[in-house]
Every structure is written in structure tokens, then in C-alpha cells.
Task: inverse folding
């Protein structure tokens, strides 16, 4: 039997090979290697896809988050609320500004920030709330936006894992003040290298971001602020433009696989991801939970099925943050880290392969 990879990026490339290679060649032959029409075309297309007024391409997802916080004028002494259960980049963006990280525990059923716990974490110094749409599942934005607007706090969404997801019927990209995207190759919309973007409905914030990503300059050699160099590469923009046209179809395929997992694993001995009725997730990851996670992972590996853990260690337990948080500080995030397992899912995976993974889990459950 063939092995089942976690995600097959080579197969994704091969499916679009002629289109991708034509677009990349076009960018190479243009003689224009920073900024220019490839970047502008993709920014316009992605803003349109997200139904937002502005899209600003940047170098990667971490920069999308950290430049956004800078644009919101977050400085040392300010507090930024982030989930305790997220990829470390969400936290790194806050530390890069010198601001104070204020983690909030997740709802274990979805992995996303527990909205009921946010209010207690707010202080007069809170400047921004950063909900993360983890695993491609939207966080519960409405109560977060209501809370933030009552207190004049900004909302910056980390949508790195959620290209195409909808919250209450509306595509992510324009709910919060700023929305940060990563196009890292393994994301649902993935480039052929590092890439990222920010979307927003706010013209002033968009203009400031454009300036910050380009040395704090609007006009060449005129620098209004001490900015950064973080631009979306035109070759990546060309590839992203091709892949954007296929995003909805590829997300549909992920959904069909997730639906199969959900229905056929319903009576099994593991906890399945819960989807609130207002959420239309894009299944970046299909994350199950079990107290016997390591054993299940081993059994699947034995059958040739590669799984991953997102994430084996939450940020507060990383050495990088050991100075700031005691190990016992966020028990829900810590417990999730010991239970979660991401099953293979991706647009080039077949239903037959999903059935094989399900059969393996069912066998393991009967042992
Ligand atoms: C991937 C990811 C990022 C960072 O994106 P990069 O492009 O790798 O810098 C940030 N937040 C989350 C939740 C991610 O999954």
C-alpha cells in the first residue's frame, strides 16, 4: 500500500504546473523584480476575493502581523491579547513591538480563543485583541468586535490558516481593523516560498502599511517614518494569482474530506473538531483529540500514514518565553498540546486515502 503523506505540495504543484510556470516565467521576463504590476494585480485580486477595499502584500505572515501592530502604534507598555493556543508567530509579532503579551485560553472544542474569557483580560493598557482563526476555523468575531469597539480597542485578525473561510456567511478579510495573512507554501493559499498580506477596509491604515513595508516611504528617498523592508515578491505574487483562481475548488475538496472524517469517525474513540453553526471553515488542518495521542500517532505511522501535531508545545512553554510565563499558567493550552493530532488533509488527497486513515483509526480504537 502506498504511504499517505500529511500534505503533498509536489502534487499541488504538478496539478497547476503549466499555469504556474507560465506565470513565473512572465514575472521573470518582465524585468521588474520588486513591486510592479504582478504585485498590484494580486493585491487587487485578493482584496476582491476577500470582499475588502485594500490588500497590501508583504514578505510573510509574521511581518503581516508585526507591521499591523506597528501601524496601530503599539509600543512598549501596551498590552495585546492573543490566544494561548496558537502558532508562536502570533506572539512573536507582539514581542517584536516590545508590547506585553496577554494570553487568553481556548475553547477546547474548537481550539480557538474562548470569547468568554477575553473581558477579564482587558485592562486600561489593552490596545489590540488578536483572534486567530486556527486550523482554518473562524473565531467567534462578533462578540470580540463588540467588546473591542465599546473599549476603543483594535482587532487584528491572524487569518494565516483561513484563506476563504466565512464567518456568518461573510468571507474573512474585513471584519477586524486589520487582517493578517500568510501565504507560506503549506497554507490553503500557498506561494512557492514566503509571502504574506494584510487586508483592511480602512484607507488610512492601508496607506500607512504601504509606507511601512517600504522603508517608511511613499515617494522615493522621502522617508516619513522609520519603516521596514517587507514586500511581496512579484514572482510569488504571479504564482499566488494562479493559485487564487483555484482556491475555492481546493477548499471544497478539503471540505469533502473533512466531512468524510467527521461522519465516519463519529462513533470512534476520539474527539472530533466541533464546528459552530455560524462557521464555514476551510479545513487547513483536521485536528482530533485523544489522551492516547502518541500511541495513535505511532499506529498510523506504522500503517504508512503521516500525521503532525499542531502544536506540540504552546508558546508559553517555549524557551523563548520562559522568562515571562510560569509553566502552569495556561493549562488548557498545555492539555490540548498533549492531546491534539492533525490527520492528513489536502486538495490532492483522495477520499479513498481518507477511508484508509479512518480504517486505521477504527482498528486502533478496537485494540
Ligand atoms: C503560518 C502562520 C503564521 C506565520 O506565517 P509565516 O508566513 O510563516 O510568517 C502566523 N500565524 C499563524 C496562525 C500561522 O499558522
Result:
Amino acid at each position: 500500500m502506498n504511504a499517505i503523506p500529511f500534505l503533498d505540495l509536489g502534487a499541488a504543484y504538478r496539478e497547476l504546473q503549466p499555469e504556474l510556470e507560465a506565470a513565473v516565467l512572465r514575472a521573470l521576463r518582465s524585468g521588474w523584480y520588486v513591486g510592479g504590476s504582478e504585485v498590484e494585480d494580486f493585491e487587487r485580486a485578493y482584496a476582491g476575493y476577500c470582499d475588502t477595499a485594500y490588500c497590501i502584500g508583504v514578505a510573510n505572515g509574521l511581518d503581516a502581523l508585526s507591521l499591523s501592530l506597528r501601524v496601530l502604534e503599539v509600543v512598549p507598555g501596551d498590552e495585546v491579547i492573543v490566544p494561548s493556543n496558537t502558532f508562536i508567530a502570533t506572539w512573536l509579532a507582539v514581542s517584536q513591538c516590545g508590547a506585553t503579551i496577554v494570553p487568553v485560553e481556548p475553547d477546547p472544542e474548537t481550539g480557538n480563543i474562548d470569547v468568554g474569557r477575553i473581558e477579564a483580560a482587558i485592562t486600561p493598557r489593552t490596545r489590540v485583541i488578536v483572534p486567530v482563526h486556527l486550523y482554518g476555523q473562524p473565531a467567534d468575531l462578533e462578540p470580540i468586535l463588540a467588546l473591542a469597539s465599546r473599549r476603543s480597542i483594535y482587532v487584528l485578525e491572524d487569518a494565516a490558516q483561513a484563506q476563504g473561510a466565512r464567518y456568518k456567511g461573510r468571507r474573512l478579510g474585513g471584519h477586524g481593523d486589520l487582517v493578517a495573512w500568510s501565504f507560506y507554501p503549506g497554507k490553503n493559499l500557498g506561494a512557492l516560498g514566503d509571502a504574506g498580506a494584510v487586508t483592511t477596509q480602512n484607507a488610512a491604515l492601508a496607506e500607512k502599511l504601504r509606507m511601512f513595508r517600504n522603508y517608511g516611504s511613499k515617494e522615493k528617498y522621502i522617508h516619513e517614518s522609520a519603516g521596514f523592508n517587507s514586500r511581496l515578491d512579484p514572482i510569488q505574487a504571479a504564482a499566488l494569482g494562479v493559485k487564487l483562481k483555484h482556491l475555492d475548488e481546493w477548499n471544497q475538496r478539503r471540505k469533502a474530506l473533512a466531512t468524510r472524517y467527521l461522519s465516519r469517525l463519529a462513533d470512534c474513540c476520539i474527539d472530533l473538531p466541533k464546528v459552530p453553526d455560524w462557521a464555514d471553515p476551510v479545513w487547513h488542518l483536521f485536528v482530533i483529540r485523544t489522551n492516547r495521542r502518541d500511541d495513535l500517532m505511532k499506529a498510523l505511522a506504522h500503517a504508512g500514514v503521516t500525521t503532525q501535531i499542531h502544536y506540540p508545545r504552546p508558546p508559553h512553554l517555549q524557551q523563548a518565553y520562559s522568562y515571562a510565563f510560569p509553566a502552569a499558567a495556561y493549562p488548557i493550552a498545555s492539555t490540548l498540546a498533549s492531546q491534539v493530532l492533525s490527520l492528513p488533509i489536502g486538495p490532492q488527497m483522495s477520499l479513498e486515502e481518507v477511508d484508509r486513515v479512518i480504517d486505521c483509526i477504527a482498528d486502533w480504537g478496537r485494540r
Observations:
- DSSP finds eleven helices and 14 strands in the chain.
- The chain has a mean pLDDT of 97.
- Residues 112 and 134 are 6 Å apart (CA to CA).
- The pocket of pyridoxal-5'-phosphate is lined by residues 60-62, 86-87, 89-90, 132, 158, 160-161, 182, 184, 194, 196 (CB under 6 Å).
